Amino acid sequence: MPGFVVAQPLVFGLANGAAFGLVAIGLVLIYKSSRVFNFAAGEFVTLGAFGTYVGSSVVKLPYPLAMVVGVLFGTAAGLATERLVVRPLNDRPKVTVLVATAAVAIVLIPFELMIGKVKPFPARPAIHGVGVKILGVYVSPQQMLIMLALALSAIGLAWFFGRTDLGLATLATSQEPTASRLVGIRLNRISLLTWGTAGFLGGLAGVLLPPVTSNFTAGFGTTSVLISAFTAAVLGGMTSIPGAFVGGIVVGIVQAMAQFNVNKLPGLHDLPGPNSVAILVVLVGVLLVRPTGILGKEA
Amino acid sequence: MATTLERPVEPPSARAGTDRGQRPSPAGWAARGGVVVALALISLLYVFSNKEFRSDALAAAVVLAIGALSLNVLVGYAGQISLGHQAFIGVGAFTSAYVISQSNQSFYVGLVAGAIVGGLQAVVLGLVALRVRGLYFALVTLAWGFVGENSIFRSRGLTGGGAGQPAPRPGGFTTDRAYLLICVIALTVVLLIDWRLVASKAGRALQAVRESPQVAANYGVNVRAYTLFAFGVSGVYAGIAGALFASQRTNVVAVDFTFALIALPYLIVTVVGGLRRRGGIVLFALVYILGQQYLPDLAKHLHNRFIIDNAGFVVQATSGVLAILTLIFQPDGLGTVTAPIGRWLKGEPFVFGSRGGAGAEGLSVRP
Fold first, then answer.
1. Which of A197, B80, B274, B353 has the fewest CB atoms found within 10 Å of its own CB?
2. What is the ipTM of this complex?
3. Residues B239-254: pLDDT tens digits?
4. Domains, chain B
5. Shortest CB distance from B328 goes to which of A89, A227, A288?
């Protein structure tokens, strides 16, 4: 095919996809433990980015500390959502909880808009420099950092679920809540832990993703990360952490390929927003053709 | 196979728990009549007074009410969920604007075209809903909303690109006050359709499908047809809301139809107003828009620069908190207040609380 670019979208897609993967793992953790679709996840991401911005540009902390602040913002949002919104709705239909988590986004987005209006916030990378040339394309240190974060998170979670009692308790709760409670596992604490972890991962993605494009806007987590992360989670089967990991990368690459190449296809040179269309196609395609995802056991 | 749900001798939701023998005293009827007359007088006073009273905001509130009623058909009646209503509304708005300014048709043709195309896009989405179960469908609507927002509404041929598409108001109704009249008539028509819809066989069938598609199918309810029907109705309402929105703004631009500006606020209004509670939804749409209008005035008295600048955001954040509180404590939303008033006006005793509304299990979705 003439004029198609492959290497550049591949690099972009890998880095973005790694961030989607982080958020998707958070979505999967919550879905596994409580069968809830968390539509507030996008705002955990925005708050992560926001925390870093406040830390570095407003309070003038050293950048690594500002990153920690960002991750803490995300984690706090996750914990607060669980305690204030999700737990009171424990015995309600899952759609109620879904709408309630969307309402969390409804509350948070205007706050961000109040502070920043619609203009983008600047976001500077953790490490400056042009990066390493791979396949003829420069991979920035920030992009490598995102991929490293995803890899470390995945390894950390694998260790947590495979080797620790708490991880085992979490898995048990997701399979048999009643039996788990009978053997003395505190469901509320497990739930808090899950949401905190999801907030942490979302915050981490929010800290790492914006510097790639050097800015972010209020609510960007909900408008541009959430649906990609959900698609990644669905692609991975919604209950599989490795699935979410792989799904994130796939969605990132598909979106970047669409962004770079769709306009070169005959008849589509004027199509705006090709990555949104790509997401819809992938999502509906997976749900219609293989609702169990790539690695999942149930839809 | 052809058996359908029989109409119950007494519709249970309308009469359950009421002593039918108890009718209001003459004084009771007088009080009810007085309230109706007072409301009518206030409306007439508004229509005939010379003082301009935020007609543009009221028109926006009416549009919001119609849009929220559209969401109510999906979430409240059909047990589906839409998180992509910016696409629903936007399709109506851009269709109407295109028909008016590119095909040189009248506003009314644009309105009908917006309603039809809005209905069609919703039915296509409904076809997906038949295959994709429950919560997963919410994701499809979310993705569809973003396709509308980022792709369709930005394509130059259809929508004039970033500059937008002009959508002039109809002749004779160009002022805000006159245009408000058109919006109110449209809302009245939508409310009447909605009322008949719920009270008819289709409404009972949808209720059955919402509670349990399997049981409904066993009773001979055509689950697929009624689900698509609900999508169509919701799309038509949304198309009408979009067409009215277009001419209220007189120019339609893609940036008006975003997740944060349309999908989320419409969802809040539906939830806080109360699912399956028309009165509550219309009332909260009014409160929402008038809140945005009056908060700056209030803030001026308090000399609070921040609130003056951010009235819209303050109202949205507050409403979001209200939505969460509604879901936790009062699933019927404002319907808890409006429903007893409505029953009282119809001659029943005033009993606070709700019947036949959302209730604790109000939000349910096909399993």
1. B353
2. 0.90
3. 999 999 999 998 888 8
4. 53-345 (1.10.3470)
5. A89
